[in-house]
Task: structure prediction
Amino acid sequence: MADYEPISRRPIAAVFRRTAKAATRFCVRWGIHPDAISYLSILAALVAAFCFWQSHTAPWLLITAPMFCYLRLWFNMLDGMVALAAGKATARGEILNDLPDRISDIVIFVGVAHSGWMNPILGYWAAISAVLTAYVGIFGQVIGGEREFSGWMSKPWRMVALHIGAWTTLACWWWNDQSIRFQSLTIFDWTCIVVIGGCVQTIAARLKRIMAALERRTK
Result:
């Protein structure tokens, strides 16, 4: 087993973790490297982005796009589980575990921005907010503590918000005379506004906790 122990691990619901137990055993048995799984998460994000991008001409793609967002999350979880189970956890692996996440966030929200269902500017601001949220969370490790995962709009909840926005848009398109606007904004506009607002709260919550930890250390 490797001597390296990851500094911080994202809290994951036990029921979600159980879905990857068999896959973890398979990857360890066949020597599948955690880095390869990290790259698969980017591939899943690219497919999700493509589905969002093309969904205005083929609205049924709004059904599948969120599924690939969740697959991206599942791969993000699986790579860490395999690294620990196979004794392949390394400091380099922490970089390759985190960087694909940021790429995936950007790719997915850019796909949404250019889907034709919304104002692209809001999609880009959602992407920027997602990256900033993760960036601030890393500050805890920078000062020698733990990474912060607190706040309303962490990575999983951003994907849940997109899921709700996608399926609500599709439902309104099919069964509400293609009316997808509320107060002059589309459902996806509102979805990204919620994501942006949630990210602002998350950034504030994480900074508060990090500053409190820093203050305790300096006493």
About this structure: Strands lie at 181-182, 185-186.
